Amino acid sequence: MKRVVVALLTSASLMAGITAVSGQSRTAPAKGPALIVTPAETLEAQGLSVIIDQNKFSPIFFDEKNAGIQLVLHGNRIATDGAVRLDRTPEQWAPVPAFISRTRGTEPNQIVVRSDYKAVDLAYSVKVTAEAGGFRIAVDLDRPLPAALAGKAGFNLDFLPTAYFGKSYLMDAAPGLFPRHPTGPMAKDGSGDPLPMATGGKSVTLAPEDPLTRVSITSDAGTLSLYDARNRAQNGWFVVRSEIPAGAKENAVVWHVRPNVIKNWVREPVVSFNQAGYTPGRSKVALIELDPNFTAPTEAELVKLGPDGSKQSVFRAKTKPRGRWTRYAYAAFDFSSVREPGVYAISYAGQTTNPFRIAADAYGRIWQTSLDTFIAEQMDHVGIREQYRVWSAPSHLDDARQAPPNITHFDGYKMGPNLDSPFKAGEHIPGLAVGGFQDAGDYDIQTPENASVVRDLVWARELFGLDWDETSVDESARAVEIRKPDGVEDAVQQIRHGTLQLLAQYKVFGHAIVGIVDPALRQYAHLGDAGSQTDNLVYNPKLKATERKGDGSGAQDDRWAFTTNFPANNLVVAGALAGASRALRESDPAMAAESLAAAKALWTKEQAGVKDGGDGRDDSSSRRSPEMANVVATVELLITSKGDKVYADRLRTLMPVIQQHFEWVGSAAVRAIPLMDPAYRAQLLPLVQALKTKVDQDMTKNPFGVPISDGSWAGSNQVVSFGTTMYLMHKAFPELIGTEHTLAALDYVLGRHPANNLSLVSTVGTASKLIGYGHNRADYSFIPGGMVPGVLIVKPDFPEAKPDWPFLWFENEYTVSTTSAYILAARAAMATAAETP
Questions:
Q1: Gap between the Cα atoms of 735 and 361, Å rounded
Q2: pTM, rounded to two decimals
Q3: Measured over all CA atoms, what is the biggest interatomic distance in the chain, rounded to whole angstroms?
């Protein structure tokens, strides 16, 4: 990424060398500062953090590139996965060690981690000890390697490719270059294994020319090898490795790691703001993220850009401290008093940010691309074209085969002993090759997420209007064209497309299913055109693997349908279908009636005995609550029926659920107020008061005014959902809830967040996330309008939102339901901003 964003250490700025680091430090010493152990059990020095197994390998996705020993050097996480591995260049689902414990060692500034591979009888300790100029890594085995692991087990440390593209390395004295594109060498034995780029040395130095990313590793006994794991999989990193010798036990591998640390290095401030700009009347507060070692100016300046490129100072003010959060300090620059339309930038600490607007129509085009391009690109079972570009040929026309019982899929789907299906394992299921959205960067249909897209678009139309037509959809021809209006609202067409899949499942099974996903790992890892992921021919077991006959083939590439009948999924789908019936009533009355009938049937079926937590079966990688889903579905049917007593009475009986889970179901509950009696609103009033108290308390936990996830997946979806919820609370209870929360949510996802100031919605705002994890990720590109998860907290305290490496899905993966949630929240924020024009 070649862009100017304050304090954003992209590969471009790294290449600029020392002069781009900071106004306070421009020289590099021969040796780095001494590392010390912190209370969080990391090793720290100014400019360097060694994070030691605070982040674990995933039990589902295994190698997420956020585990083991990790290095944050000059504000950039450049190395990860320091651990014993059983592969030279592990892929994502290669075996990973299980973390056992992390303790203080017997030596000063030493951390000891215990891990094992139980399946192969390998247990070991890794000792990380501070020493002059860096740290020592020593691997001690409980017992020598089993014979089967000789030549396979070794210690790996992975280095971020984008930090080293175009730079050099030295293996001992032998020079080499890190390639931008993997170029081999590969083993000639048909294994597909990469051979080392360099091997046999006792030391390796990465990027000797670059003080910001230079790291040297020396091995005491065994030799070192350097691999490009991208030769095996596009999401691989550069791997430094030492094999564990047969018979070795204590000090089986000993490395001395010497990251170059620039003396007195400080990270430059990140000035974060809404990249789409501001309407004149709303609050305007930029946040400044500060290295605690930085001598921070106490004043910031707003400049207005003239037609000739001049910068006129229009406002100066003291910054206000916002406290410490994670490893950084924060300050606020409030320029709300500036209302005159124009193009502006913020000057602080000798730098000026990229521009943004103050304009009445600042938010006029912040949601449309998400609808007409991103959601269109995620459509399944159709071909998608955008002028000269073909996003996908018609896809997955061979859907789907019955998944077998008693399996756990590598993407988290689970099937117990009961199929809840009239079809046998492996049998083709007719009727499913229609509608639906591919969930994310992979190509599966997750039924609850598809239902969420439908409901979000229904709500957005009803509450705010989505009068927009830039895409043509011809379901009968399986043809979609972006930027070709056809006279029908895009939102209505997408609601219909999602509904087609939900109805298809109901017609085939009589209930919602978990979803449809690729059966084989190699197929699942497919990148590119969804239309080429399968042969689009129905599997015929009578044919050979490469044989085709009529509309059948012997290729077992048809996706699997996971068909378990879960009450929560049925209720989520019932709510979506009830909403769809309202949206489709004018354009497709037959489908509207069919949707409503299915919604009523699913809802009625689940009213007996719905309990929070379901029936004990896990529907996927996360558990959903049938009780909460029941509240939402009941509200949707209440709205559709215009207050039918059946649903109103049922909603009253669900008040204990609403009270217990108001934070999650409150947005639906308040939508029912106009159709319920005054006593219903009175019961919600103390819940809103309690929610306000909780929100006010939660908002003191970080300076951004929104809930920030600290889990293993970044939290932009949580933020936009919060924004929508608080808007609905504001409209229902304006005497209690203001507009600030909804606007804070919009500010966060459009740039005012930790780590950098990029808009998390690709192409929205003047500076946005332009390398994302979608079907396109191998191209280091973006899908317009998609929202990425955003800022991950790498434990214990490092906020990260890498701008240039697409393969960290927990930061960069577009998902269709997250983006539809953004559309709804964006429209809510637009309505909120319009209250103070």
A1: 28
A2: 0.94
A3: 82
